[in-house]
Amino acid sequence: MSKKLKIDIVSDVVCPWCAIGYKRLEKAIDELGIQDQVEIEWQPFELNPGMPPEGQNITEHITEKYGSTIEQQNESRQNMTDIGEELGFKFDYFDDMRMSNTFDAHVLLEYAKDFGKQTELKLRLMTSFFGERKDVSDREVLKQALIEVGLNAEEALSKLDNEEARYKVRNKQGQWKNMGVNSVPTIVFNMKSAITGAQLVDSFKQVLSELIAE
């Protein structure tokens, strides 16, 4: 078996296009039948590092950050919901939905990596936020997610108050920003080439086929 293709996905758990991008990438990998030839690692990126613990109403947040009108936001959400449905991922936008602070989620994803559970936990947290109306900064929600993917919740949650674990995540975020990553998802192949955004399945298939053939 030759060396696996390393795929780093820089993303946030509250980024809708990160969920769509991953589901399309997953579909491309499945359709090419190369599941055993790739290795995926999730890298931390906070869309809103200054988000307060109580979060912020999502409509208000998007208006403030991007200047989008309510109509534009509704259209965008409907579009994402439709795409999600095609990919088997549920988006359930609602009026009182709040943007969450995601730093703790990233600390737990770093913990999950050591047990080969990163992708499972990432999808569980994305599903909690987008499909189940849950606050992914809430420790009870995080605990439930850890249990559901088969991780030691107590040990994992202890990392949230561990300065070394928190520093490691901040340091990684800084490294990716220094490499020029300023939007997500950014998908990096073998630390040599990268694509940004939720590309179409066929685009991913083309890139993957070329890289696997090398």
TrEMBL record:
Highest taxon listed in the record's lineage: Bacteria
Please give the Gene Ontology molecular function terms for this protein. Answer: isomerase activity; oxidoreductase activity
What keywords were assigned to this record? Isomerase
InterPro entries linked: DSBA-like_thioredoxin_dom (IPR001853), Thioredoxin-like_sf (IPR036249)
Question: Which SUPFAM superfamilies does the record cross-reference, listed alphabetically?
Answer: Thioredoxin-like
What are the residue boundaries of the DSBA-like thioredoxin domain, all occurrences included?
Answer: 7-208
The record's listing under CDD domains reads: DsbA_FrnE
* Keyword Isomerase applies: yes
What's one Pfam family here? Answer: DSBA
Q: What is this protein called?
A: Predicted dithiol-disulfide isomerase, DsbA family
